[in-house]
Amino acid sequence: MKVNVIIERGKDGTYGAYISSDNVPYGLIGEGKTVEEAKEDFYNSYEEMKEHYKVENKNFIELEFIFKS
């Protein structure tokens, strides 16, 4: 499933990345001082969620991300 990931710059100058879809049964966020750091943190969150679902023996929906700012 393809989902849009919104990247926004906060008032403090850092960046945040989040999924902009209600069709995904879990939430993901990423944060960083740069856009690249936010993306990297976002992908780390995705891998951690995938591992959590595996441990819980739940079906994990694989996603493809389209980053937008």
SS class: alpha+beta
In the sheet with the most strands, the strands line up as: 3-2-1-4
Instruction: Provide the gyration radius in Å.
Output: 12 Å
- Terminal CA distance: 20 Å
User: How many extended strands?
Assistant: 4
Q: Which segments are poorly predicted (pLDDT under 50) over 5 or more consecutive residues?
A: none
Largest sheet: 4 strands, mixed
Tally of contiguous helical segments: 1
What is the percent of helical residues? 25-40%
Anisotropy-based shape: globular
Please trace the helix and strand order, writing H or E for each element: EEEHE
Strand content: 25-35%
> What is the averaged pLDDT score?
96
Q: Keywords for this structure?
A:
69 residues, alpha+beta, four-stranded mixed β-sheet, 32% strand, globular
What does this entry show, briefly?
The protein is α+β, with helices and mostly antiparallel strands. It has one helix at about 35-55; strands at about 1-10, 15-20, 30, 65-69. The chain has a four-stranded mixed sheet with strand order 3-2-1-4.
Architecture overview:
With 69 residues, the chain is an alpha+beta fold. 30% of the residues lie in helices and 32% in strands. It has a four-stranded mixed sheet with strand order 3-2-1-4. The radius of gyration is 12 Å and the shape is globular.
List strands and helices in order, with pairings.
Elements: E1 2-9, E2 15-19, E3 29-32, H1 35-55, E4 64-68
Parallel strand pairs: 1-4
Antiparallel strand pairs: 1-2, 2-3
